[in-house]
# Entry
Amino acid sequence: MFKKVLIANRGEIALRVIRACKELGVETVAVYSEADRESLHVRFADDDVCIGRAPSRDSYLNIPRLIAAAEITGADAIHPGYGFLAENPEFAEKVSASNIAFIGPSPEQIRQMGDKAAARKLAKEQGVPTVPGSPGPVESLEEGQQVAGEIGFPVIIKAAAGGGGKGMRVANDVDQFTQSFTLAKQEALAAFNSDEVYIEKYLARPRHIEIQIMGDTHGKVMHLCERDCSVQRRHQKLVEEAPSPAVDQALRQDIGDAAVKLAEAIRYVGAGTVEFLLDPDGSFYFMEMNTRIQVEHPVTEMCTNFDLVKEQIAVAAGAPLSFVMNGHRLRGHAIECRVNAEDPSRNFQPSPGLITAYHPPGGPGVRVDTHIYAGYTVPPYYDSLLAKVIVHGNTRTEALARMRQALDSFIIEGVTTTIPFLGRVMRHPDFVAGKIDTKFLEREPHLLKDPT
Ligand code: ADP
# Structure
């Protein structure tokens, strides 16, 4: 096992990794920007290093400083969390070249899946269904128009290097295509430094279903069933649950097998997520693979009783997988709501600032993963996730009731949060019935407004 793990991240995920390390008896190093001096991850780690100014590129994205921090503090491993450098193959490469273990897959595996067009191709070769679309990257507008004409509108143009819902544009017809194609390319270049794009058919009412997988260095890959992340805004997840109300045991097996097959094809090591779109007719299509721990991993933890972060660390240290999945059945039902410092009625405008009062919900089956406290100032520089509320119940009905009471008793004052909005989603008849898809919020814009 490692002696000391540096966490190259901030916020709730930094705390999550510190907790896992403590349970494993591993020391921890927090890194922080000048804006994060008062952060809890700094307080709870055994050691800490300030790595630079507030903007991410001067701190959490600065590879030489992160590696120097690990060397100075004698860390023998780095956990990247999610976001920032978690899926940056150069970072993984440089960490390994400095004789420090990277808690995640190899640089080659990150690279193979980081290029979404290449990952799509690999999925196809493995017999995993993909959304109809271009066989690879699309070079020119003319080629794009031809592909779009062949597969039929609407289509979605996606950045090959994309992530976080950026660099994606929908085109409903030929006229719109020209503009969407150009915009997607520009956005991709600005966000990912590559303007490579590919095209897919834009499905009308899909659900977002993803499979949690875990691989070890001994060649074993396992899946831990699905999460349903269909409540989205601008292609970004807001609510996640497991199991999916739309997936039965037979479908679970099929999607799970497809995910494992793909991961096995690249001898995947570590925690990963294979994302699919599920059509109302029951067909599913590979979308992309994320080669890291995800924000929504706790719903899987609640329904399996496994600690995915501890497992991730153990696997990186060379241990074999410790999971035994009982016939790939999940225990009860879990839901996660992402609480952000944002104002839904103002287009989710960020609301940083001082938290003047804070009281988290509790009771049986309620878990809150957060880094905030009364007196903490939410800095404007990073994403606006304040807390994740995760509930578990014996049934979906029980989990829903638990989530409603948890959200209703969650007090955060001083900044505007998405809590009231999430409460409305939890009461919407379509969500309660489990009958939603990724366009749910587009159809129900009134949910964004406070009715009073
Ligand atoms: P990112 O890497 O930016 O997260 P993804 O490829 O994972 O992007 O897609 C994010 C979301 O965009 C999906 O969950 C879905 O809501 C929507 N989406 C992506 N591709 C399609 C498609 N072909 N048809 C319909 N919706 C799509």
Observations:
- Residues 131, 156, 158, 162-166, 200-203, 206, 208, 232, 235, 275, 277, 287-288, 438 surround adenosine-5'-diphosphate (CB under 6 Å).
- The CA atoms of residues 1 and 400 lie 39 Å apart.
- The domain at 132-201 is CATH 3.30.1490.20 (Dna Ligase; domain 1).
